[in-house]
Amino acid sequence: MEPNKVNSRQMSDPIFAAIPAAASGNRRAAEAPGGTIKIVTYNIHACVGVDRRYDPARIAAVLLGIDADIACLQEVAARRRIGRHPDQWAYLAEATGRRIVKPVPARDEETGERRLPWRIGNAILTRFPVLFARTIDLSLPGLAPRTAIDADLLVGERVLRVAATHFGLSALERRLQSNRLIAALGEPPAASRHPADALLVMGDLNEWRGRAGAIAALDRRLGQSAAYRTFPSWMPILSLDRIYLGGLAVLRELAVDRSPLARLASDHLPLVGQLSWRGSARRPRARPPAPGRRPHWAPARIAAAGPPA
Questions:
Q1: 265/292 Cα distance (integer angstroms)
Q2: What is the mean pLDDT of residues 97-108?
Q3: How many domains does the chain have?
Q4: Please, is 20 exposed, middle or buried when counting C-beta atoms within 10 Å of its C-beta (0-12, 13-18, 19+)?
Q5: Is residue 27 part of a domain?
Q6: Any idea what the Cα angle at residue 18 is, between residues 14 and 19, rounded to 5°?
Q7: Second label for 167, Cα 20 to 30 Å away, from 42, 69, 77, 239?
Q8: Tens digit of each residue's pLDDT (9 = 90 or more) over 243-293
C-alpha cells in the first residue's frame, strides 16, 4: 500500500472535511511545479546524547544538516538549572533561523489561571509564516504530561495544517491519546481559521508493536504510515517515529538520517521526507500575520514566535 494514500472513505472522515480531495487520474501529471517541502520528525531526547552529554549544539547541527522546511520535534526541554542554553525552544529557533511554535499550558478549569509552563514538550520549527496554532492536551491523570501542537502554516498560496505529537509509554495511554488526537483534529474549525489544503501529522508515537494499538487507530483514520526503524539510534530496531499526510499533497522519499552525528546526538534518529503538492491552489490567498503580532483569530493558547532577530 502506498504510504498515506487516503481513500474515498477516509476523505469523508471529519478530520478531512475541510481538506479538498485530490483529483482522480495520474498523480504525477497532477502535481504542480514549484519544488518540494522537506520535512522531518525528530525526538531530540532533551539534547542529551547517547554518551549522556547535554549538548544542544549537536542537535542544532543535525537539524542544520537536514535543512528541513518543517521540523516537528519531541522532548524539547527547559532545563533551568543548566547555564548553557537552558531554554531549548529559544535556542533551537535561533540556531536554525526558523520560526518556532511551542506548547502553551492550558488554563485551570476552576481558577482560570494558567498552569505552570511545560518543562518538556513538542515544537514545530518552520520557514513558513504561522497563521494559527493551538495546544491539544493529551495528558492522562497520574502520567507524564503529553501534548500535540496543531498549527496552520502558509506555504505560498496554500495552507498546510501540521500536528506534532508525542504519545506515552503504556499501550492504554497511547490508545486513549490517539483517540483524543483524532477527535481534536476532527473538530469543526473556527470560522476565522483558513481551510487547509493538506494535513501533516508527525511525531514519536512510542508504538513498538508494529501496527497495533495507536498506530492501527491512526492508520484507519489518516491512511497507512510507512514504518522506518529510528530507535535506538545506535542500532535502530523499532519504528517509533511516524509521518502521516492527507489532502492535496504526496509524501515521498522517506529516509532515516543515519549520520554519525545523528547516531550520537539523541537516542532517536530523524525521519526525513519530502512533501509535494498536487493540483493548483483554488482558494483566495491567505495573508500572514504582521511581524510581531498574533493573528486576530488566535486563541489564548497560541505560542507562535517569529524568526529570531
A1: 33
A2: 81
A3: 1
A4: middle
A5: no
A6: 105
A7: 69
A8: 999 999 999 999 999 999 999 999 999 999 999 998 765 555 566 665 554
CATH number at residue 266: 3.60.10.10
| Average pLDDT along the chain | 81
- Give whole-number Cα distances, 211 to 129, 134, 234, 286, in Å: 34, 28, 23, 37
At a CB cut-off of 8 Å and minimum separation 6, what does 266 contact?
A: 42, 43, 44, 45, 47, 48, 49, 50, 59, 62, 233
Whether residue 232 is preceded by a cis peptide bond, meaning omega within 30 degrees of 0, is: yes
Q: CA 7, CA 21: separation in Å to the nearest integer? A: 9
In a domain, 306, yes or no: no
Please indicate, yes or no, if residue 297 is contained in any of the structural domains.
no
The predicted model gives 47-65 an average pLDDT of 96
- Return the pLDDT at 79: 66
Return the exposure string of 113-137: e unless at least 16 CB atoms fall within 10 Å of the residue's CB, then b: eeeeebebbbbbbbbbbbbbbbbbb
Nearest to 101 by CA among 309, 257, 294, 237: 294
Domain membership of residue 31 (yes or no) is no
Range of the domain at 115: 8-18+36-278
| Predicted structure pTM score | 0.81
Task: Kindly write down the DSSP assignment for every residue of 193-226, as one continuous string.
Answer: SPPPSEEEEEEE----STTSHHHHHHHHHH-PPP
Find the length of the chain: 309
